[in-house]
Specification:
The protein has twelve helices and 15 strands. With 328 residues, it is α/β, with parallel strands linked by helices. The strands form three sheets. The protein has a seven-stranded mixed β-sheet. The protein has a six-stranded parallel β-sheet with strand order 3-2-1-4-5-6, sandwiched between helices. Helix 4 links the parallel strand 4 and strand 5. The structure holds nicotinamide-adenine-dinucleotide.
């Protein structure tokens, strides 16, 4: 039984707390958040202790491993603290705010042998994993093109966007990791950013983007992002090769189709957001974290995967701001 401490009781903290509660191999012991009321309400729901002293989680003898769900600027400190305490960590994306912070992280981890897994849960989504496995088995031949559509139903609050690092590090980072998962190393990035939502104008961040990535093998991935989508949480992937293609469509709560005077073959709306769409993925991600700890091996995705996605995100931002193709 793995005794888990959770750091940060916000949106994603609640998702992980639920996964831990549902996992027969783990128990939620402690929730730490400087906002004590947030820690308490989450801890209470799962029979765990709560605390506002976040540092105390690293020395707590009841905590075997931590899940880091704090705001991105705190990830480096929390990964280092977990490593120094000898506690395995599952850390949410992105690994750090920027590549300078990654250098700092690598310096502070020198001489330690941390077990750290990055929270790119989409790799554990059953449909995306199947696509990955079929691609690896040569089903479509050498991949030529990948198309990723990733649109959120609605933008997070402007205050969240202000500290998120921007759309490429906050949102597209999942798609960059998906492109790497399917294509391997990325060598060139070009991006166009959009300012379409007046409500987000003051954030200075793009609220839509189209990004093109070129892989080391010459395959091209196109990523289409929007912070809003009237039809819901739009998550699709297509992989194209000389022998065929593989496509993952949006998931729905049921397979019922309705027919009437105004529309035919209408289906249920898409599963509404990351919590429901990726529920199975978060559960399997946790399974991998628990298994890696039990088997004393490095879990995947690694810090290096987190850094590679962050590098692409910085390149995309540079390309969107300059109009140039950025080579990695
Ligand atoms: N993998 C995913 O699907 C996914 C989804 C959402 C967010 N995230 C990532 O998770 C992280 C948190 O995002 P969120 O949406 O849950 O944010 P949030 O703002 O909802 O929650 C953050 C929580 O961290 C707490 N906090 C603040 N300072 C802290 C500290 N020093 N130590 C511990 N906790 C602290 C806040 O009080 C808050 O409860 C971000 O890095 C984000 O990129 C990942």
């Amino acid at each position: 039984m793995l005794n888990v401490g959770l750091i940060g009781a916000g949106r994603i903290g609640r998702v992980h707390a639920r996964s831990v509660a549902a996992n027969a191999g783990a128990t939620l012991r402690l929730v730490a958040d400087p906002v004590l009321a947030a820690a308490e309400s989450l801890a209470e729901a799962h029979g765990a202790r709560a605390g506002s002293d976040v540092d105390a989680i690293f020395s707590d003898p009841e905590v075997d491993a931590v899940i880091i769900c704090s705001p991105t600027p705190l990830h480096v400190d929390h990964i280092v603290a977990a490593a120094k305490a000898g506690k395995p960590a599952l850390c949410e994306k992105p690994v750090a705010m920027d590549l300078a912070a990654v250098d700092e992280l690598q310096g502070r981890l020198a001489g330690l042998e941390p077990l750290v897994m990055m929270g790119f849960q989409r790799r554990f989504d059953p449909s995306f994993r199947r696509v990955h496995d079929l691609v690896s088995a040569g089903e479509v031949g050498p991949v030529e093109q990948v198309t990723i559509v990733s649109r959120d139903p609605a933008a997070p609050p402007a205050e969240y966007i202000a500290v998120s690092g921007g759309i490429f590090k906050d949102m597209t980072i999942h798609d960059f990791d998906m492109a790497r998962y399917l294509l391997g190393d990325i060598v060139a990035v070009s991006a166009v950013g959009q300012h379409l939502d007046p409500a987000l104008a003051d954030t200075g961040d793009f609220d839509g983007a189209v990004i093109t990535l070129v892989s080391a093998q010459g395959a091209v991935a196109t990523i289409t992002n929007s912070r809003h989508c009237a039809t819901g949480y739009d998550q699709r992937v297509e992989v194209f090769g000389p022998r065929g293609s593989l496509a993952v469509e949006n998931l729905r709560a049921t397979t019922v189709r309705r027919f009437g005077a105004d529309a035919s073959s209408a289906e249920d709306p898409y599963l509404d957001f990351f919590l429901t769409r990726y529920e199975a993925a978060y559960a399997r991600e946790l399974d991998e974290f628990i298994a890696a700890i039990a088997e004393n091996r490095a879990p995947t995705p690694t810090i290096a995967d987190g850094v590679a996605a962050l590098r692409i995100a910085e390149a995309a931002a540079a390309s969107a701001n300059s109009g140039a193709i950025v080579r990695l």
